[in-house]
Design brief:
CATH class of the largest domain: Alpha Beta
Largest sheet: 8 strands, mixed
Structural class: alpha+beta
Shape: globular
Number of strands: 8
CATH superfamily of the largest domain: Nucleotide cyclase, GGDEF domain
Order of helices and strands: HHHHHEHHEEHHEEHEHHEE
Radius of gyration: 20 Å
CATH architecture of the largest domain: 2-Layer Sandwich
Helix content: 25-40%
Number of helices: 12
Length: about 280
Amino acid sequence: MSLIEKITNRHKTEEDFWYSILTGIKPGVPLYPMRNFFTKLSGETRCKLCNIPFDGRSSWFFTRVWSKQSTMSPHFCLRCENLARRHEGGADVEMTFLFVDVRGSTALGESMSPKEFRALLNRFYHVATESITKNGGWLDKFVGDEAIGVFLPGFVGEKHAVEGLIASIAILKETENTLNSEPWIPIGIGVNTGVAHMGVIGNGKANDITPLGDEVNVTARLCSNAKAGEIYISEKTMNALKKHGAESILSDLIIQEDSISVKGKSENLTVFIARLKNSQK
């Protein structure tokens, strides 16, 4: 058994392990000696678990002897990602979800060559990735022409709904989906806050770290209803935004309250349809 595995055995259950990572209530992985050491090194971007810096003067050395940055999420080093994958299980935690989808992608694909369409989607993926991760979100996955981000309290604190909205606004601005402007790619966004189960699903080498539950499905439905340039914000997210003082951010948006029917729900959902007021970046 490795030193890391011995230390992480302090967690009584797999649920304890994941709950600590997702909420940040306890250090995600209690590698106290390594965390304390890495904290003393300069760097702006770090692994959320072991604290190793991915930039700074000494990062070139420690990313070679300890671990490089994960390709799955910029919040992890590869060593900690692999550690997390070995802890099959998860925990129920409140978080905020962001789904962003290209509108009319079929027509777009038919209007250009496959190579041009690929380049367009890659540009969209880059914008979505940068906007989500720079605001502390976990880039969950790309599904066709859709990007999914998750904002966890263990990564961004209790104001995860605020960070989710900020990332959504950034995506609209960078794709020029603003009022009275012509976007270079039309997108719609859904943002929702709620409790989901997140952890490792699958077994052996065929596994993934992803959220599951009804709130994830609700976010997907919100996104599918959003027209180009729109953010569909759930009532739960709006309540969280007001609770955490996001009035100044909301003031930059044109917001219309509505009630919509979504698949799988017997009652209509209250939503807040938001658009950016202008095209300024």
